[in-house]
UniProtKB/TrEMBL annotation:
It comes from Clostridium aceticum. The lineage of its organism: Bacteria, Bacillati, Bacillota, Clostridia, Eubacteriales. It catalyses: L-isoleucine + 2-oxoglutarate = (S)-3-methyl-2-oxopentanoate + L-glutamate; L-leucine + 2-oxoglutarate = 4-methyl-2-oxopentanoate + L-glutamate; L-valine + 2-oxoglutarate = 3-methyl-2-oxobutanoate + L-glutamate. One of its GO terms (molecular function) is L-leucine-2-oxoglutarate transaminase activity. This is Branched-chain-amino-acid aminotransferase. The keyword Hydrolase does not apply. It holds the Pfam family Aminotran_4.
């Protein structure tokens, strides 16, 4: 495909742009159809769709990366596929087979190849797979029909001027209940987070930190990203809880910490009253890879870690290694990379 698109890659942020084609597959009478690529970016669905009234839906987020040799690759799409199956099961939607999910992602990237930002720009092609309950329905019950779709948008690097720490404030609100849907990537958790996010931003913070909903004493999530901390004796610590969304970036960083950097890794409770145990902390997720945390405000006091202006050395190493793997500059563990081109 030699089509050219008129995009200034250096000016991209995280905004919707209509790309050429998107994948759509429909589920009815117990099965998914074959799926197809379509030009139309508008969905016509029943006004009585469960996705609109009862939040019966879920989504995923992953990226296609342009490599130095002109190739294009996906990072661990099988993990996104499996997580979407977990989300589907939690809200009683039919699972999309892993192969179908990966095939849909590859089709969308290939069909929109002109939108894959070139290597060196730090920009990527963001993929947004989702499943929604559709069809005519009024009662609170699972939908009679479903749509699985994947669209893509070119997005800029999260940090244009290099990794920069930001400050967070601890929220008094919860994004999910103790054994609710916190571990599923469903829209309801995000609806619940919009207001606390706005409150945090109005106070001058990048976003808020959510504590465990049962006791409000342990750190769970940082906005829509997972939390990690590096202890003073160089251990990588990340919270464990049934209401945390299992971040693929986080599990990848745990692997990198252990196997590439030789750092001990632990999943356990992180008490908000014991921030002193960490010399560096960060938030991690597909969008930014790592957002270094400068400080955390809790009960009116700002606890600063490494620095409010500079990223710590361990965080930087973790970031550089994962970023290098995603863009094909560092050798990836077996099975992490799926070549599209
Ligand atoms: C998607 C998401 C993350 C990050 O997951 P990745 O797989 O690393 O992108 C973290 N927390 C929440 C609440 C999320 O929705």
């Amino acid at each position: 495909m030699s089509k050219n698109v008129n995009i200034d890659w250096s000016k991209l942020s995280f905004n919707y742009i209509k790309t050429d084609l998107r994948y759509i597959s429909r589920w009815k009478d117990g099965q998914w159809d074959e799926g197809e690529l379509v030009e139309d970016n508008q969905l016509a669905i029943s006004e009585a769709s469960t996705a609109l009234h009862y939040g019966q839906q879920c989504f995923e987020g992953l990226k296609a990366y342009g490599t130095k040799d002109g190739g294009v690759q996906l990072f661990r799409p099988d993990e996104n596929a499996k997580r979407m199956q977990d989300s589907c099961r939690r809200v009683l939607m039919p699972e999309v087979p892993v192969e179908k999910f990966i095939d849909a992602c590859i089709q969308v990237v290939k069909a929109n190849e002109a939108y894959v930002p070139p290597y060196g720009t730090g920009a990527t092609l963001y993929l947004r797979p989702f499943v929604i309950g559709v069809g005519d329905n009024v009662g609170v019950k699972p939908a009679p029909e479903y749509i699985f779709s994947v669209f893509c948008v070119p997005v800029g690097p999260y940090f244009k001027g290099g990794l920069a720490p930001v400050n967070f404030t601890v929220s008094e609100y919860d994004r999910a209940a103790p054994y609710g849907t916190g571990a599923a990537k469903v829209g309801g958790n995000y609806a619940a987070s919009l207001y606390p996010h706005e409150v945090a931003v109005k106070k001058g913070f990048a976003d808020c930190i959510y504590l465990d909903p049962a006791t409000h004493s342990k750190i769970e999530e940082v906005g829509a990203a997972n939390f990690f901390g590096i202890t003073k004796d160089d251990k990588f610590i990340t919270p464990k809880s049934p209401s945390i969304l299992p971040s693929i970036t986080k599990y990848s960083l745990m692997h990198i910490a252990k196997d590439y950097l030789g750092i001990e890794v632990e999943e356990r409770d992180v008490l908000v009253d014991n921030l002193d145990e960490f010399k560096e902390t960060g938030a991690c997720g597909t969008a930014a890879v790592i957002t270094p945390i400068g400080g955390i405000e809790y009960k009116g006091k700002l606890h600063v870690f490494h620095s409010e202006t500079e990223v710590g050395p361990v965080t930087k190493k973790l970031y550089d290694t994962l970023y290098g793997i995603q863009f094909g500059d560092v050798t990836a563990p077996e099975g992490w990379i799926v070549k599209v081109k």
